[in-house]
Exosortase (Salinimonas marina), 484 residues
Amino acid sequence: MDKSGLVSSVSWKVLAVIVAALVITGLIIPDTYHTLHELWTKNNETYSHGYILLGFAIYVLVTDFRWQQFSPSFLYAPLALGAGLVWLAAEAVQVMLIQTLVLPGVLWCLLASMVGFKNSLKTLVPVLSLYLALPIMDILVVPLQNLTTWVNTRLIQAVGITAYIETYNIHMPYGIMRIAHGCAGLNYLLAGMCLGIFYAYLNLQRLSLQIRAVVVILLLSLVGNWIRVFALIMIGYESKMQSELVYDHGFFGWVIFAVLAVFFFFYAKRLEAKDGEFESTGREPSLPLSPKMIAAIGTTLAAFWAVPASWQMLNSQVSANTVQITLPESLQMLNKTSLPLSRVGANYEGNDASAVYSGRVEGYRLNVLVAAYRTQKQGKELIYYANKPANQLSQRTTIKVGEKSLNAATPAATQRVFWLYKVGNSVTLTDMQTKLAQLTHILDTPVVSVVALQVNCQRQCPDNTSLMQTLQPQLEALVTVEVQ
């Protein structure tokens, strides 16, 4: 790299383009950015290195002149449009993980539109490294947790302390320590991977040496976490669980990581000596500002921007409409109440409209519940882990009433609950069916809702077959409840 100073070693044109892209994209998909912000600002959590990684990736892109030879191309606008459509599909079914996974791809499309395909390949390392700050890496938590437990079980047996190990729990005479998800060491592994990848990219040329550098820092990160967990077990044992480190040990792990990182740098310097002189990246980039280059960048950004912008405009128009609920004749003997859903044990967070209808039929107290969503976003969605048609659902199953299928469950011995979901006029039963139905109705943005019937018995309720025979008209009518 150019050693003449920070100002002369930075491509300010590239920096301006990247910053503009981040700002413009953030303005059009603020919820996705907000999710990343929350993820990256949780101190001592798995992805707390997110902002540091983003800053370093940008630094590498603007100071590495090897790829900065402008060759504007409009070929990447369709890819950016495709990324926008993937984002839209993920938004429609409220899968925030996929929405965040799109972002590095959009950045690469933008860079490729500036310099062409061949030169853009040289940006893949810093761009792909951003995935190390996205929650897709959570798939490694359980394997790492199992590995940490196995290693520490062997260490405990080796030193001979009194402990009984049950799954992830370590029972000691003075208390129980648990090797939880946070003890898996994923945060240290990701930090080490980032360190190794960027060091190898910036300082080594031979692929074998680059791989060796990354492997060494990964092993040191794993070993450092094992040392951390074992040290905490020993501290808890020796202090009779009185040490503050037993309960607050986030910083302790980073101290161990930093010490091992020093050994990595000494080893990496030896690899540099084997590698020979590194290829200079200090030559001036060829970055002429031309109308074609500006148009290529603008077109690529606009191609991605167009889809979320259209979606936001459509949602703003839809959200102004009111939701109307109409019961069929078989349920019109029930009276609409002023009760909130929570009073009858149901919960549907952030709904745009809800209603509870109550009355007696054939000696049973019936409650018909409807919760509808005109628009959805994270935490304000029909299919959500906290949403339920009654408290403490158990014995969930699917039943057939005439030609209609319903979900059924037993919240208590004196209650049964039957429910279904509606996406516009489409009826679904499972979470997956409902998500897919939302995806197929993405353009007409219908109301999505849940329609449930709670049957309250004076004593223990009869089985579902008996209830279906007695309340067949009311159960079949659930499908024909209109929510518009």
